[in-house]
Amino acid sequence: MNLIMEIILILQIFVLGLVWGSFLNMAVYRVKHNLSFSGRSFCDHTKEKLTWKDLIPLLSYFFYKGRCRHCKKKLPAIYPIVEFTTGLVFVLGFWYLWNNFLDKPLFGLNLFIIVIYSLFFLFFAVYDYLYWEVNVKAIKLALVISALFSLTAIVLSDKQLVVSGISGYLGALIAGLIIYLIVKFTKGSGMGEGDIYLMAFAGLAVGIEGLIPLFLISSVSGSIIGIIKALRVGKLHGVQIQFVPFISFAALAVLFWKDSILKLLSLDEFFLLISEYL
Ligand SMILES: [Zn+2]
Q: How far is the CA of 88 from the centre of ligand 1 (A)?
């Protein structure tokens, strides 16, 4: 494949990601407000139905200068940011598959797994960013689906999937247990039932060998943003941040670049040794 073809392919994946990002914005809103997924989107204020002109990812936002075409109210900047981020995650996920799984069978199934994980992680990140919580119904659904992926990995054996089997279950168990203990023994950590499931979900995605990078990347990136936020509001105590966006960011990073990250942390040989027993 020549360069032009590759660029066109990447652009197509990016546009596909934009469309799914637009879907995510809608999904987060509808899940939060207990609305059904069918039916056209409408303006919050005038209740007018939105048409295709309002719904082109990124472009509608910039063309109408970030305002609603119907009521002229300012639209939250999170909409185009989610769309762009989803496009980017799709490209990175596809890039990872392209370089590591192209010559293996089950490319379609692996693509499906990457898309589902990407959408769920982005969904929970946006949901937590906007509403400061993990939706328990949605995370239970995500857990069941990801547990099925890992079960498939066990059945297939021989490392044909992007997710690992037994290592995934162990990762989920340990990550979930850590958060469970934090919830149980600390008061005011701001974490609850949803966070336990979310970490188990992330554990299934990265496997037991991905847990150290997962905790490391999420806590370091979360702390940096937390400190920046504290400096901006001018106080260091009592500053709260939404933590799920950092878990999601870390989990997707580990999912796409696990080998390089483990090597960077000099953990690769240690886990190579362990993986021979799993
Ligand atoms: Zn409006």
A: 28
